[in-house]
Task: structure prediction
Amino acid sequence: MGYGFGVANNVPPDAPRLDAPRLDRQVCFAMYSASRAATAAYRPMLDELGLTYPQYLVMMVLWEDQPRGVRELGEELGLDSGTLSPLLKRLESLGYVERRRSAADERRVEVFLTESGTALSARATGIPQRLADAAGLSAMELDQLRETLGRLTAALQAGR
Amino acid sequence: MGYGFGVANNVPPDAPRLDAPRLDRQVCFAMYSASRAATAAYRPMLDELGLTYPQYLVMMVLWEDQPRGVRELGEELGLDSGTLSPLLKRLESLGYVERRRSAADERRVEVFLTESGTALSARATGIPQRLADAAGLSAMELDQLRETLGRLTAALQAGR
DNA sequence: CCCGATTGAGTTGTGCACAATTGAATTGTG
DNA sequence: CACAATTCAATTGTGCACAACTCAATCGGG
Result:
């Protein structure tokens, strides 16, 4: 029985190389493909809001609690300032957020929602449901998938 | 019970916006995070081969069967020529592949493994096992995860 | 209080993704 | 056969990711 990460034990006799990694057995490729497919499924909905998927993630964090420092946003999303700084600049030029240097600690930059950014939340409400409908999985499967992926992510990050 | 795509039914009473999408419930964010964590876990191993993860995917397809057209590679991996053309140029400059215009159809470009590219397969053999070890999931969980992600990807791609 | 170490955001450079376009080669149809 | 439609790879432009670095602000030990 395969353990799912692509090692080709029990390969059929016509396999080109007996121990070459097999793409179709790799969980990592399945995650890579699924993640890109999900982003692609979001795209037409997010286009209506003028957002990319990573920008939508940042907005979701801000909709939950606001303002947030760049560093906090990075911790929530696992992104560094090299990714967030230009992304936030684009969100700012879209008029959805404002960046202000913290008075208490001049190193920090606080990200605030504008009125327009706050209002966007209402327009985004239906998006997760529409994705769930397109996913073709039961509620139980989605919950279990999320839980398994969470453990996988934690284990991969721990091993460094 | 939540269905896992982030709709906030049964939110706690202190939630900032009752119907705002909640990041921590989203399967899509879990996939996005897990996929990046997996790529990060691959990175030190692939660094030894001089490959990025997408380059490694292309090499795996070629190790299975060779030569392959750019279009076939794209179908296997779900990537277009805009991604593959520069990637293949880099693999070529690394000396792992060669690109030759097909004589039968001058539009096609066939991608061949070089001797060095073929030899790389042996050095890559252990990588999937090392990833599986780092994943912290049972063989059964990995198999089921791969199967679920496959159905999810297919459903998301079908709805377009 | 001083100064070396740390923290925080931003910049630079590389490599995907992906939309849109280009231009050449081939195919299908009248 | 002619030629419009299609196929195919490559290019251009935008926006992530992420490593490496810069520079200013803050912290902490002596």
About this structure: Chain B touches chain A through 75 residues (CB under 8 Å). Residues 6-15 of chain B have pLDDT under 50 and may be disordered.
